[in-house]
Amino acid sequence: MNVTLQSAKMIGAGLATIGLTGVGAGVGIVFGSLVIAYSRNPSLKNELFGYTILGFALTEAIALFALMMAFLILFT
Amino acid sequence: MNVTLQSAKMIGAGLATIGLTGVGAGVGIVFGSLVIAYSRNPSLKNELFGYTILGFALTEAIALFALMMAFLILFT
Amino acid sequence: MNVTLQSAKMIGAGLATIGLTGVGAGVGIVFGSLVIAYSRNPSLKNELFGYTILGFALTEAIALFALMMAFLILFT
Amino acid sequence: MYNINQTFFSASPLEQFEIIPLIPLELFGLNMSLTNASIFLILSVALSIFWSTLVIYKNKLVPGNWQSVKEIFYDTTLTLVKDNLGKKGYRYFPFIFTLFTIILYCNLIGMVPYSFTVTSHIAFTFGLALAIYIGINIIGFRTHGIKFFTIFLPKGVPLFIVPLVVAIEFVSYVVKVFTISIRLFANMTSGHTLLKIIAGFVWTMISIGGVFVYLQIIPLVLLLALVGLEIGIALLQAYVFTLLTCIYLNDVLEMH
């Protein structure tokens, strides 16, 4: 595979990783609101922590979509 | 297909994936507000969780629009 | 490895590191809400600080994903 | 100087996901060979059956430690189904339980070094998600008949934006298959790649020698933290996959 294509893949993968920006903020927001929610109503053990972890997992998935796209560009 | 076009596609797909940024933050906001809303008024099982999942599904659809665009650029 | 590929790798790694923007904001949000939560209900020693550290660690994981991608581009 | 760095450090961090046919088998033109992926799938099924029967063997009222772990595992799935599907969901509980077990075991076995993570291949996760999706649609048609199409129209939508909402609902309904499978696949793949790259750092640092031999403690500690995170993510993704299956099943059973 010639060099121009190879280098374009590098740049493309780098660009695709920028998609992680929102997810970093998203995870921060989810845990930030967990902390505030917990201080307001410390009936924790029921759903509160469960929803935060669910929210984290679903936000994480968006990061992984972007990373999967980056891998796709880099290696195919 | 000549190389310049191929490499432009790589860069284009990488650029399109940046669209996932907002979705990451959006999903975080949806679940963050679920957590706060639940702590404020834990009558959960009725609408609260339903609306979060609806909100999440619609935000996820935006992520898939961006990814679909990226695939469109990459493979056609 | 010829020059164009080498320079493309540099640019790609640089672009990949932009993914850290969100994580910076996310960590700020988590600790910001810790401060607010602590002021509202200073029962600190229980879960409050623990969740903030958990939130910080998971947001940091996103930063690691972006850095991993940057190193992957830079070195392979 | 014989550079051990080149020989040991594999080609690329993605090399761990290659499928190697162990017993090549040609059956009516189909490649039915036994690969390392199928071996690890069989291994995780055998392990889950073996462990479950072993735990239930001497059923005591006051559970021993292994039995209590199994009970916690059973209980989380039961509450999962009860919360999201309610009484009518109990028919689907065995399916949900096996789904949760198989994904959990595949993920956790993948954490063992030199093993193979079955769920890190899109073929496996997408096949599973598509099968579940088709099953859910069949259930939807059976319970609601032709009225099933009202699923694309949520209640209380003002008339003039109905076509837009239907279009978006349709897209997000179809997209569920892709998001649920890519979520599991991408989490497993990039998690393990991250571990491999950090491990590669430790290795290259040692092979450089000099002061780096002591400096390699930093990536090593990072690697340990990440292994913990990876195990957490393995459990979490199995739970999320099952939870979303329950939610989608509930969407179909209970037309909003």
From TrEMBL, chains A, B, C:
Transmembrane segments: 12-36, 48-75
Cited InterPro entries: ATP_synth_F0_csu (IPR000454), ATP_synth_F0_csu_DDCD_BS (IPR020537), ATP_synth_F0_csu_sf (IPR038662), ATPase_proteolipid_c-like_dom (IPR002379), F/V-ATP_Csub_sf (IPR035921)
Single GO molecular function: hydrolase activity
Subcellular location: Mitochondrion membrane
UniProt superkingdom: Eukaryota
Domain V-ATPase proteolipid subunit C-like: 11-73
Family to which this protein belongs: Belongs to the ATPase C chain family.
Protein name: ATP synthase subunit 9, mitochondrial
TrEMBL record, chain D:
Molecular function (Gene Ontology), one example: proton-transporting ATP synthase activity, rotational mechanism
Any one GO cellular component localisation term in the record: mitochondrial inner membrane
Keyword Ribonucleoprotein belongs to the record: no
Ranges annotated as spanning the membrane: 37-57, 92-116, 122-140, 152-174, 194-215, 222-250
Superkingdom per UniProt: Eukaryota
Matches recorded under Pfam families: ATP-synt_A
Gene3D superfamilies from the UniProt entry: ATP synthase, F0 complex, subunit A
Subcellular location: Mitochondrion inner membrane
InterPro entries: ATP_synth_F0_asu, ATP_synth_F0_asu_AS, ATP_synth_F0_asu_bact/mt, F0_ATP_A_sf
HAMAP family tied to this protein: ATP_synth_a_bact
Record family assignment: Belongs to the ATPase A chain family.
The protein's name in its UniProt record: ATP synthase subunit a
UniProt source species: Pyropia yezoensis
